[in-house]
Design brief:
By secondary structure, this protein is an alpha+beta fold. The chain has a single domain, classed as Nucleotidyltransferase, domain 5, CATH 3.30.420. It contains three helices and two strands; from the N terminus they run αβαβα. Strands 1-2 form a two-stranded parallel ribbon. The longest helix has 16 residues. It is globular and about 35 Å long. The termini are far apart. The mean pLDDT is about 85.
Length: about 70
Amino acid sequence: MKSKSETRGLISNFLAYVHTQFNTKIKTLRSNNGQEFNMPTFYQEHGIIHQLTCVETPEQNGRVERKH
């Protein structure tokens, strides 16, 4: 990803990939508070719940916590 403006296209491609390869739908997408993920109509069209992470809470990233 070269710029944040590519986010919508990449998420759309990822949704199609998951649906085609795994025959399932994405129910929830969790992201940081970045404005590039602020697409409420897109999420509503696809029935996706958009969750935002809390600021300054590394506990929500289990992989990083296990490394520490």
